[in-house]
Amino acid sequence: MDQPRQKHVNITLSIPADLNALLHAKFPHRGISNYVANIVRVALDEEQQKERLALEAAYEEAEKDPERKKLIQEWRAVDAEDDTEGWEW
To answer: Exposure pattern of 54-70 as b/e (b: 16+ CB <10 Å)?
Structure first.
């Protein structure tokens, strides 16, 4: 998927010499930057998706926890008591 044209920043990376040779054999100079940028973008998107799925799974697991539900009910009772005291924040 083509990304909109963005400002580019030069960075320095260290990679093994054999990998550098493979990249230069396969791509022209500018092609390497685009290739690496696309791979990094895909890898970061995949990592973000994994983190989101793990967080969703943790929320689903927490939702099943009976102790959590009990605590929520206890806090709701406390909150209801506080509402009757007329606090104005």
So the answer is: eeeeeeeeeeeeeeeee
Tokens of 32: 């390497």
Tell whether the torsion through CA atoms of 11, 16, 19 and 24 is positive or negative. positive
List the alpha helices (DSSP H) in the chain.
17-26, 29-64, 66-83
* 63 and 71 Cβ atoms separated by less than 8 Å: no
| CA distance from start to end of the chain | 50
Mean pLDDT by 10 residues, the chain (89 residues): 78 95 89 92 98 94 87 84 61
- What residue segments make up the domains of the chain, in order of their start? 17-83
